[in-house]
Amino acid sequence: MIVFDVDLARCIFTTGFIGKPIGVKKPKEREEVNKPLELSLIEAYHLMEKGVLKVFKGSEELSMDAFKEVCKKHIPGFDDLYRSYREFKEAGLIIRSALKYGTDFALYRKKPGLEHAPYLVKVLKYGQVIEPGDLISWGRLSHSVRKELILAVTYQSGLITYLALKWFKP
């Protein structure tokens, strides 16, 4: 998703560090956001839910339901990912993609650039089979980049249980 209105892009980015200005590697100041803003589908859905953003396909404005179907088509497990995303946002955390770490989200307490993300989050569905090698990989990688691993276990009821794991070396 792209926000072409630069003033709106600046506002969205600086009020919650949502999205990434196109072509700006690591913007730190409000003045550095002078380009359109790239949003993930999850970020765009969140802003749409909050009434900050309208989403268009061509000249047609999409309803929340229609946009949710687009998100579900392109993001496996969208509902579970979004529920976790929303809870972290409501807790005041800044959320970035963590695909490069093999997890779903990186969480910041402060803004990116002032600190490294202290947490990586992997969203799992209750009852989902996890290969031991996957769990070891997430744990070793999070440890090697000095982050705690959080498993967000989602239930069909909407409840989410969070488990924080730290690498233990006997």
Write the layout of secondary structure elements.
Elements: E1 2-3, H1 6-16, E2 20-21, E3 37-38, H2 41-49, E4 56-57, E5 60-61, H3 64-74, H4 78-90, E6 94-97, E7 105-108, E8 119-125, H5 132-144, E9 148-154, E10 160-165
Parallel strand pairs: 8-9
Antiparallel strand pairs: 1-3, 2-3, 4-5, 6-7, 7-8, 9-10
Written description of the protein model:
The structure is a single chain. The chain is α+β, with helices and mostly antiparallel strands. The protein has two domains: 1-74, 3-Layer(aba) Sandwich (MutS, DNA mismatch repair protein, domain I), CATH 3.40.1170.20; 76-170, Trna Endonuclease, Chain: A, domain 1 (3-Layer(aba) Sandwich), CATH 3.40.1350. 34% of the residues lie in helices and 22% in strands. It has five helices and ten strands, in the order E-H-E-E-H-E-E-H-H-E-E-E-H-E-E. It has helices spanning 6-16, 41-49, 64-74, 78-90, 132-144; strands at 2-3, 20-21, 37-38, 56-57, 60-61, 94-97, 105-108, 119-125, 148-154, 160-165. The strands form three sheets. It has a five-stranded mixed beta sheet with strand order 6-7-8-9-10. Strands 1-3-2 form a three-stranded antiparallel beta sheet. Strand 8, helix 5 (132-144) and strand 9 form a beta-alpha-beta unit. Helix 2 (41-49) packs antiparallel against helix 3 (64-74). The radius of gyration is 17 Å and the shape is globular.
